Amino acid sequence: MDSTSLYYFRELSKDLNMHRTAERIFVSQQTISNHILKLEEELGCRLYERKPGLTLTDAGREVLGFVDEMTLQQDNLKNTLADINNEEKGSICFGASMLRLGSCLPAVMPAFHARYPKVEMKLKDRMERELEALVRAGEADLGIIVEVTDEKDLIVEPMLDDQVYVCVPDRLLREVYGEKDADRIRCRCAHGTDLRDLEKLPFCLLENRLGTEIQKCFDEAGYAPEVCMTSSFMQIAASVGFSGIAAFFTTQVAIGSRGNDIPADLNIFPLYQHGKPLYHRIYMIRRDKRYLPAFTRYFAELLKDHYREVARQHAERVAKRVR
């Protein structure tokens, strides 16, 4: 079987749309069509149903499984030989949200680049499910995500329980509740809040998985919040909240990445759910049975070290707060 035809077959099977695939891999639709017809003639079976839309046949799914396994083994052989030859050049495809890329890369890239200056880092800013698919397909080497929807063909490693906080500008707290009540609320919420004390505040809400958990906290508190803004992006909610017009939600990693941007008057209260601190678990994923070259394994270890350090610093802050 022609490896080029198998490549076009695998790429077309991702989109199941001839026009979209041709644009994505920069070839003509006719080129793809010719290779598919050639492959079907050689194998003696139809790989796709053409109508009403392009779908894989049972035979097509079998061939796709074979091609995926063949691609994985080719990559494994190439990476194994690179390690045997002590090659210290190549590339890593690393995926995460923009927030997580921005929080971890400054911490790990200096050490990585010092050890492997000839390795290129290719970044993919993607949503969770898309990242899973990229890692599973071998198109990303490593991914950092907060929700694993399907562990099939993946190695999943917990990195950090990222604590969730509700942030309230102090001037907003005093404006809404008055000085005396604001002082009482601040004292009560310093070690954790289930949102009952904050019912009168406007909030920036999140429209994502974390936002779903936060909504459960509001349900538990027994009220529907006044909504100032809704966004899928924690950074945007925080930027609006920093202006002092609304309370917002964040995590230890997200708030830590803001550094000196955090307003001095911002109250940062641990968020509780069912009487316990709420956490957002962060995972690292990679393709099962895929051989990673030494430089990729080194980068993964740097990521683990980074999240261990984040957890250690957070534990120290919590201990100081308790004392």
TrEMBL record:
Domain (HTH lysR-type): give its ranges: 1-57
MF term (GO), any? DNA-binding transcription factor activity
| Keyword Transmembrane helix (UniProt) | no
Oxidoreductase recorded as keyword: no
UniProt xrefs under Pfam families = HTH_1, LysR_substrate
* Any Gene Ontology CC annotation: cytosol
Keywords, A to Z, come to: DNA-binding, Transcription, Transcription regulation
Name the family the entry cites. Belongs to the LysR transcriptional regulatory family.
From the Swiss-Prot or TrEMBL record, give the protein name.
Answer: DNA-binding transcriptional regulator, LysR family
> What is the scientific name of the source organism?
[Clostridium] aminophilum
